[in-house]
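We emphasize that the prediction below concerns an isolated chain of 225 residues; any contacts that depend on oligomerization or on bound cofactors are therefore not represented. The input was used exactly as deposited, without trimming of termini.
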Amino acid sequence: MRGLVSRRSQGPAAALLTICALISGCTYAIGESAADPVPTPVMQKAAPVMMVVGDSFTVGSGPVPAWGSYASETARLLRWQPVIAGAGGTGYVNRGRVGRNFQESFEAELAWRPAPDLVVLSGGHNDRRWTTLKVRQAASSLLWAVRGRWPETRIVMLGPLWMGKPPPKAFAVRDALAEVAEREGVHFVDPMRRRWTGHVLPDGVHPTAAGHRELARWLAEKLKS
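Result of the prediction step, given as a token string:
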């Protein structure tokens, strides 16, 4: 019949496409090329990376695991990716039971990684038994190490965390760290400017899971600003 094309007149290529469509479920129509470009899926932008060096407040303690600490919760609120380093009992100077201070934790756990978007140096609680001179020297050394490794990465220093009333020596450590931050042009965030009560573990030192969430909401707002 006129106006209709017989299967015989379609040629081998058209016949092959017809068979493909019937048997293998090909989705392109007759006349289209199998080599036509496939739409590229939209790639989501990678979440910013926030690295945190700290002590037991940062890595979690007691019933609070690392993924429930204020550091992880802060990253979660900001929709960032956390990478947490450090150990309980450590500080800028103090090595604790693990036998390393903050700079040694940084070098062992973080320095070999690709550059993050932000590094938070959090602590000083365990440095109260050391002289402020030692604390300043150790904090400066760590800052120089971070900058030397990642010159473009932003750095924030978070002062000592105290859930109760801080002893006088804690304020001396806080002031020493704030002095280093100012001298080095680093933003300093001071948790001791407010009281953290009501969410403390039975040890009287560390925050509960609710306390970590409260700290995280506060820190997330500070980092946003």
